[in-house]
């Protein structure tokens, strides 16, 4: 990573401990030469608009008082209110939340949603706390960040270790504090509380849609195409089922319990049932177990990383023989692996485009909450598919025009949109 002059960094960050924020800054450096006159505004992207650190004091079940550190970062709101999840994890840091907020700005703009980017987090491991304690932590945190969130300001959503119940508590706390039931303050709520149909499957469905577009671009028919997937949870499991239903052959799946393979194609419905019953893919009947290194090296048309970050890295990138990688996970490919795969002729559909289906249906949820009129699942899927297809088309056109990767193409598309808004709005005062 290149050195960033100290004056370019917010003073509260240690230049030697930038973590994911440093990776993001590097991505902005790469895109700057393509921004033309808009590069005058590029510093806007290198610092969050607003970073709030809050103390979250809570009485635990044993009567003691514990203090937790919480964050809410609004990276950019030039195109609309901030949008992004809330993460509960013991390792959450301000610089990580800043990077995740910035990637939300890029993702929202790449798909052309009228949102900026934001993210939040609390530094604690929810596995060590009771449901009542987690509810009290969530409510106090929501109250503390309540000054900057709102349906027109910044709309939180679930992320790692948070879910529809967390969003229901956040929505209730915000509503109680403001004296009016405000469903649109968060997305990813239970359907009974103004959540959207189709939200659970949205990210996997988006992965499927852009995967089909990328395959068509490369002259690959989905019917009979081989697919391998790491991660068989919400994103990977949904994508696997949709590719299977479309006639593709899902030949291998890798999760935290192991890797299963069947050269003739796995029975994805049977695998789903096996995972529900046994907690993972290992031991599924009619499959052979293979080593992770053999999973990555399988000859395949499509590879979908849908588990954790940095899974495709310098140690396995050269063995990968996939024609297309569709990034369901956030940040599954390290920058070195990105360069290796690109040099080897693999097309990578980047995370900020490929997994944007979730935030797109969050946008639909927000729109439905405002109108108090709810769409059918068929309508939602139809609109999602149209938006994902349009996003793929515009990003791949920009990538081809500048002869760059789709990742850089997505950043050019998104940063141009953000900075155009910044420029026409002008600086106030
Ligand atoms: P999930 O918890 O439902 O599933 C995670 C899967 O990853 C599981 O199958 C698990 O077995 C597997 N996994 C975990 N550790 C592993 C390991 N060491 N090796 C191999 N597999 C492992 O999570 P999810 O919601 O499907 O999210 C997956 C990824 O997609 C994450 O990077 C997440 O940030 C990203 N993402 C999710 C959404 C969404 O709407 N759920 C939206 C955008 C991005």
Explain what the structure shows.
It contains 13 helices and twelve strands. The protein is of the alpha/beta class. Among the domains are: 48-193, Leucine Dehydrogenase, chain A, domain 1 (Rossmann fold, 3-Layer(aba) Sandwich); 202-354, 3-Layer(aba) Sandwich (Rossmann fold). The strands form two sheets. It has a seven-stranded mixed β-sheet, with helices on both faces. The model has no long low-confidence stretch (mean pLDDT 95). The structure holds nicotinamide-adenine-dinucleotide. Nicotinamide-adenine-dinucleotide binds next to helix 6 and strand 7.
Topology record:
Elements: H1 20-31, E1 50-59, E2 65-76, E3 82-88, H2 94-110, E4 117-122, H3 131-145, E5 154-158, H4 164-178, H5 199-217, E6 226-230, H6 234-245, E7 249-255, E8 258-261, H7 268-278, E9 288-290, H8 292-296, E10 299-305, E11 321-326, H9 335-343, E12 347-349, H10 351-354, H11 357-371, H12 377-402, H13 406-425
Parallel strand pairs: 3-4, 3-5, 6-7, 6-10, 10-11, 11-12
Antiparallel strand pairs: 1-2, 2-4, 7-8, 8-9
Helix pairs in contact: 1-2, 1-13, 2-13, 3-4, 5-6, 5-11, 5-12, 11-12, 12-13
This protein binds nicotinamide-adenine-dinucleotide (NAD).
Residues 203, 230-236, 254-256, 280, 306-308, 328-330, 355, 358 line the site of nicotinamide-adenine-dinucleotide.
């Amino acid at each position: 990573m290149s050195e960033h002059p100290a004056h370019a960094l917010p003073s509260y960050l240690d230049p030697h401990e930038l973590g994911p924020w440093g990776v993001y800054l590097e991505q902005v450096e790469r895109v700057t030469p393509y921004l033309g006159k808009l590069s005058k505004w590029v510093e806007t992207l290198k610092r969050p608009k607003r970073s709030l650190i809050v103390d979250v004091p809570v009485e635990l079940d044993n009567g003691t008082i514990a203090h937790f550190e919480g964050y809410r970062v609004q990276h950019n709101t030039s195109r609309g209110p901030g949008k992004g999840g809330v993460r509960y994890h013991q390792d959450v840091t301000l610089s990580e939340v800043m990077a995740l907020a910035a990637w939300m700005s890029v993702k929202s703009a790449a798909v052309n949603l009228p949102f900026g980017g934001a993210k939040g987090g609390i530094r604690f491991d929810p596995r060590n706390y009771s449901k009542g304690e987690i509810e009290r932590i969530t409510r106090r945190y929501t109250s503390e960040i309540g000054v900057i969130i709102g349906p027109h300001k910044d709309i939180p959503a679930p992320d790692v270790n948070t879910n529809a119940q967390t969003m229901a508590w956040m929505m209730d706390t915000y509503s109680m504090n403001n004296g009016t039931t405000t469903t649109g303050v968060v997305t990813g709520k239970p359907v009974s509380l103004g959540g959207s149909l189709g939200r659970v499957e949205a990210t996997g469905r988006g992965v499927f849609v852009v995967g089909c577009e990328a395959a068509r671009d490369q002259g690959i028919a989905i019917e009979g195409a081989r697919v391998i997937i790491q991660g068989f949870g919400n994103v990977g499991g949904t994508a696997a089922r949709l590719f299977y239903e479309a006639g593709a052959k899902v030949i291998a799946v890798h999760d935290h319990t192991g890797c299963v393979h069947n050269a003739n194609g796995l029975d994805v419905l049977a695998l789903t049932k096996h995972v529900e019953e046994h907690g993972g893919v290992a031991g599924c009947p009619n499959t052979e177990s293979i080593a992770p290194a053999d999973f990555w090296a399988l000859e395949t048309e499509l590879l979908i990383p849908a588990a954790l970050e940095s899974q495709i890295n310098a140690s396995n990138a050269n063995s990968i023989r996939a024609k297309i990688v569709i990034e369901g996970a956030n940040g599954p490919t390290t920058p070195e692996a990105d360069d290796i795969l690109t040099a080897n002729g693999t097309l990578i559909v980047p995370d900020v485009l490929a997994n944007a289906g979730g935030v797109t249906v969050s946008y639909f949820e927000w729109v439905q909450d405002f109108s108090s009129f709810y769409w059918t699942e068929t309508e939602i899927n139809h609109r999602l598919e149209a938006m994902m297809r349009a996003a793929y088309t515009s990003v791949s056109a920009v990538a081809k025009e500048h002869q760059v990767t789709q990742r850089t193409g997505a950043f050019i598309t998104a940063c141009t949109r953000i900075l155009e808004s910044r420029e026409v709005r002008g600086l106030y005062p």
